[in-house]
Amino acid sequence: MQLSLSLLAILSLFGAAQGVLLALALLSVRRSRPVVNRILAAFVIAVSIFLFGAVLRTSNYVLLFPHLSRLHDPFSLLVGPLLFLYLKALTSRRPVFRRRDTLHFIPFALCVLYLLPYYLQSREAKLASLIAEYNQADMGQWYYVRSTVVITQFLIYLVLAIALMVDYSRRLKRQDSSLNPGALFQVRFLTGASLVLWILAALRFVLDHTAATNLVVPFGASVIVYALGYMGLRKPDALVGADEEPLAGVAEQGTKYERSRLTPERSERYLKKLVEAMETEKLYRDGELTLQKLSERLSIPAQHLSQTINGRLNQTFTEFVNAYRIEEAKRRLLDPTLKHYSVLAIAEDVGFNSKSSFNAVFKKHVHMTPSEFRKASNGNGAH
User: Fold this and answer.
1) pLDDT reported for residue 32
2) What's the longest Cα–Cα distance across the chain?
3) Whether residue 11 is found in the same domain as residue 53
4) Domain containing 324: what range?
5) What 3-state class would DSSP assign to 340?
C-alpha cells in the first residue's frame, strides 16, 4: 500500500502541532484562572491526538507504526466533554473542577478498556489486522459503532454548550460587569464551529464512507485549533477569561490584597485619575467596559485598580460603574430637550445593554423605575 500525504493531511498535522504548542503555552502561563487553562489545554491535546491518528491512518503511515493504530480512537470521546467543561469554566466567575465532573470521561475509559486487548497485541498481529481492514469491502463494524457513539455523544454536549451560551448572553444583558464580554465571542465561536463540524461528520457518516473524505472532519478540527492559537495571541482574556472580580467584603479584601505593593499615596493618585477619566471622558458609557479594559485605558494595573475601588470607595467595580451610569441617566431623564428619547435609548446611551438591567439597577439606586422617575419629575416641574 502506497504511503502518501495529501495537502489536507499536511495541514492537519500542522494543526496537531499547533495544538501541542498551544497546550504547553496554556500550562506555563501563570494566571488566576488555572482551571480554565488546564481544561483548554486538555481539549486541544485531545484534538491534536485525534488529528495525528487520523492522518496516520489515512496516509497509510500507520502501517509503519502499527503500535500507534487506534490510539486516537478513545480521544475522540474526550473532545465533546472537554469542550463543554471548558465553556462552563470560561463562563463561571470562579471555575472549579469537581469530582463529579470526572463522570464525563466514562465513555473514554470504557473505550480504552474495550481496546486494551488490541493494544496489548504484538506488532505483527496489529499489522495483520490493519491490512485485513484495508482490504475489506466496507469500513468495518468498529468504524460504524465508534462513529455512532461519537456523533451521538458530541450532539449531546453541543446542546449543553448552546444552553451555556444562551445563559451567559442573558447574564451579560443584565449588565453584570463582573463578566467578560470577550468570553461570549469565544463561546459563540467554539459552539458555532463545533456545530458545523458535527454536521460535516454526520453527513459524511450517512452519505459518504470513501477514503476521499476521511480528512474533512480532521481538517475542520485543525482550523479550530488554528483559530484558538490566533485568538490566544490577539485576545488572551477571551480565550481563558479575565481575572475574577475582587471580593466585596472588607475582611476579604484584606486577605486578597495582603501582598499588594500598592501604597496609600499611589492609590490616591490612581483614584484621582480614575474619577477624572470617568467624569471627563465618560468611560462608563461603554456598554462593554470591564475592569481589564478600564485598566488598560488608564495604564493602571488591574489588581491595583480593583483594590483602589474596593478600598477607597468600598464598592465593587460593577457598583462603581453603575453609579455613574445612573447619575447620567437621571440627568438625561430630567433634561426637557431629551423628553422625546425613550427609556431604552437613554439606557443604551449611558452604557446599559438592556432595558431590564437598566430598570433593575435604577430602581435599586433611586427606589423607582426610570419611567416613574421621569413622570414624577415632569409632574413636579408643572407646578
Assistant:
1) 53
2) 99
3) yes
4) 250-382
5) coil
Name the residue among 295, 299, 333 with its Cα closest to residue 317: 295
Same domain for 276 and 222: no
Percent of the chain with pLDDT over 90: 48
Q: What is the CATH number of the domain that holds 362?
A: 1.10.10.60
Rounded Cα–Cα distance for residues 250 and 286 (Å)? 28
| Closest to 291 (Cα-Cα) out of 311, 261, 321 | 321
The pTM of this model reads: 0.65
Residues 64 and 162 in one domain: yes
The closest of 256, 253, 231 to 241, measured between CA atoms, is 231
Question: What interhelical angle do 181-207 and 141-173 show, nearest 10?
Answer: 160
Which residue do the cell numbers 484562572 mark? 33
Task: Please check whether residue 191 is in contact with residue 246, taking contact to mean a CB–CB distance below 8 angstroms.
Answer: no
- For 141-190, write each residue's pLDDT tens digit: 888 899 999 999 999 999 999 999 998 888 777 655 555 666 788 889 99
Are the beta carbons of 227 and 189 closer than 8 angstroms?
Answer: yes
The Cα angle at residue 83 between residues 115 and 94, in degrees rounded to 5: 125
> Which residues fall within 8 angstroms of residue 286, CB to CB, at 6 or more apart?
293, 351
Cβ neighbours, 10 Å, residue 141: 8
Number of domains in the chain: 2
Note whether 313 and 348 are same-domain residues: yes
Q: 282 and 351, same structural domain? A: yes
Q: Based on the domain organization, do 257 and 309 belong to the same domain?
A: yes
Q: Which residues contact 376 (CB under 8 A, 6 or more apart)?
A: 368
3-45 pLDDT, tens digit per residue, is 778 888 999 999 999 999 989 988 887 655 688 889 999 999 9
**Sign of the alpha-carbon dihedral angle for 276, 282, 286, 287:** positive
pLDDT of residue 252: 46
Question: Does position 349 have pLDDT exceeding 60, yes or no?
Answer: yes
Q: By the 8 A CB rule, do 366 and 373 touch? A: yes
Give CA–CA dist 73/77, Å, rounded. 8
110-to-103, 106, 266, 282 alpha-carbon distances in Å: 12, 6, 58, 57
- Contact (CB, 8 A) for 283 and 131: no
CB 365 within 8 A of CB 181: no
Q: What is the grid cell recorded at 370?
A: 426610570
- Note whether residue 2 is domain-resident: no
